[in-house]
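Recap slide: PilZ domain-containing protein, sequence and predicted structure.
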Amino acid sequence: MPPPTYIVDYLQFIGQVRGNYTVRDERGAGVQQVCHTRVVTVDTLTIDCAAPGAIGAKWVAYFPEFGLLRGVVSRLAGPRTVELELQLSDATRRRLSGTIRWMVRRGRGLTKDMRRSPRLTPRYPQVDLTVGNEQWDRALLIDISATGAKLTADRAPSLGSVVMVGSIPATVVRSERQAFGVEFAEPLVLKNFEQMRFGKE
C-alpha cells in the first residue's frame, strides 16, 4: 500500500484512518461496521466501507483521531467508497480543522505524537447512566480517562446517542452489544478523577 499523501493548503487529509460507522434508514435502524478514511476535509468525508448505503442516507461515523462526525451520503465514488457531506456545528468544524492541520503536520514530521489520556480503572464502578430521558440500571464503568470512558450495561445505546454519565454529558462513540464507549463533552480537569463517584454507593 502506498504511503498517505498529506496536503495542508486546502485543509485536506489524505490517508487511511480506521473507524466505525452506522448508516440509518428511514426507520432509524442501523448496523455498526468498520470503515477507513480516504480524504477528510471540513466539509466532506470520503470513506471506504463494506455497505455505503444510498444517496441521502444519514451517517454517524467515529474515528479516534477525528472524533464523531455526522453527514449525509452525497456521492457514491465506487462500489465500496462513499462521499459524505458533513453536517457539523461551527465548534465541531473548528475542532476538525485543527485536527486535520495537526494530522498533516504529524505526517510531515513537524509535530510530536502526544500520548492519549491514560485510561484507569475506577475505584467506584457503579454509575448512574441516563440515555435520553431514561435512567438505566446496573451500568458499570470499565475504565475511564479525562476524555471518555468505557461502560457496560444490560444493553448498549446506539452510536451517536447523547448520554449522562452521572452528571457529565457525553456522546456514544463505540457500541458493541453490552459494552460501549463514550466521549465526554468536555475533558475532566479534576485531579484523581479515577476516584470520582458517578453513581450511588
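The helical segments are 90-107.
The first strand starts at residue 6 and ends at 7.
(End of recap.)
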